[in-house]
Design a protein that fits this description.
Structural class: mainly alpha
CATH architecture of the largest domain: Alpha Horseshoe
Order of helices and strands: HHHHHHHHHHHHH
Largest sheet: none
Length: 258
């Protein structure tokens, strides 16, 4: 008999923040003040334009401004830069002050980059398909895109695909495959995968039950700021139990709001 999924204390990491690649920036460019980067960007330097866009998106050296970030990402995206397309899609999907949300445009940007092999876009497009977020819901297609990104070694995609396998979403449930995927993603330093791998060891799903290993992975995830992992660790005696925790009950594992 298959174990009941509702008893598993796994965290499902299916959030838009997942899989965002860090902007690779030339050290010489990174050391420049924002005003100098902006000057170079206005002169047409592509790397500087990406750096300026990233600065506006994250409020690095300048006040955060999603509309300005989108403007600079768009300039670079028009030249076919896939990282810029991905970041532009992420901003357009959510919208912000001065930037109208447009899920369709975001999906088109992601699909274009995904077809060209951009792993973060493949993962995020899969997420949109899984949730029916601005496009028609298609869980089987979502799995295909997660797998493409997973095969490229993108840890967040490996975790997301593992969740699909674990829950049998768009495919037959496969606990062995889920365990392997969570293991790969945990090796890639994905905090949610570490938490999920801890859950697999705790329950004995896809592997032999090993509570000590479960604690180890919960601890690793907790150290990366995964709150549900902290609760899982406390529940197994890895720290002071929260006052509202039920005896022997798994911590809730809702995806973070975006």
């Amino acid at each position: 008999m298959r174990p009941l999924l509702r008893s598993l204390s796994l965290g499902v990491m299916l959030a838009l923040a997942a899989g965002v690649p860090a902007m690779a920036e030339d050290p010489a460019l990174a050391s420049l003040p924002f005003a100098k980067k902006l000057q170079l960007a206005k002169a047409g330097d592509v790397d500087a334009r990406l750096s300026v866009a990233d600065a506006y998106e994250n409020g690095a050296g300048v006040k955060a401004d999603a509309a300005e970030a989108a403007k600079w990402y768009r300039m670079v995206a028009l030249s076919g830069n896939l990282d810029a397309q991905f970041h532009l899609a992420k901003l357009v999907s959510k919208g912000a002050a001065g930037l109208k949300a447009d899920k369709t445009a975001a999906a088109n940007l992601l699909l274009n980059a995904a077809k060209k092999g951009h792993a973060p876009s493949q993962n995020l497009y899969g997420l949109m398909l899984q949730n029916g977020d601005g496009i028609a819901k298609d869980e089987k297609a979502a799995i295909d895109w997660y797998r493409k990104a997973s095969d490229q070694g993108l840890a967040v995609a490996q975790n997301n695909l593992g969740v699909m396998m674990l829950k049998g979403i768009g495919t037959e449930r496969n606990l062995d495959e889920a365990f392997k995927l969570f293991n790969k993603a945990a090796d890639g330093k994905d905090g949610w995968a570490m938490n999920n791998l801890g859950g697999m060891y705790e329950m004995g799903w896809g592997t032999a039950k090993d509570v000590e290993k479960a604690k180890t992975y919960y601890k690793q995830a907790a150290d990366l700021g995964i709150d549900v992992a902290k609760k899982n660790l406390e529940r197994l005696g890895g720290g002071p139990a929260p006052a509202d925790a039920g005896a022997g009950q798994p911590a809730p594992a809702a995806a973070p709001a975006q």
